[in-house]
Amino acid sequence: MGTLSYMAPEQAAGAVAGPRADVYALGAILYSLLGRRAPVDAGSAEEILRRVVEDVPPALRSIEPSVPRPLAAIVARAMSKRQADRYPGAGDLSADVLRFLDGAAVEAYPESILERGGRILARTRTLAALIAAYLITRVLVLWLTGR
Hints:
Layout: H1 9-12, H2 19-35, H3 45-54, H4 60-63, H5 69-78, H6 90-101, H7 113-123, H8 125-145
Helix pairs in contact: 2-5, 5-6
């Protein structure tokens, strides 16, 4: 059946498990790697299964605030209680993780304009330095010429 703490809710409830159950399990593995604890931790097997089905694990950033928001959103989407809200398959989850690692926008996290700008500037530090130098030079020229 699998390791209870990493089991998808539908699987823990005894339903047929499909690709989205695998996505949940992969999300739970990421959760445990990033949060340094299993998403569900209880004494007995019955208690673990009950909690997997009924409870939502603590938000990853609440137990490990250093996890970047987009990465926490990827894990949360992978571990959604509703199968329809999860990635359709492991390849889709992998693609979003790779986008995160490449510094690109991820599907699971709707970033603000400021976050997008910061992400783009972080990826293109040389361009950011040139823009900053231009703006500083422009301000100095305007100030020195009295305009």
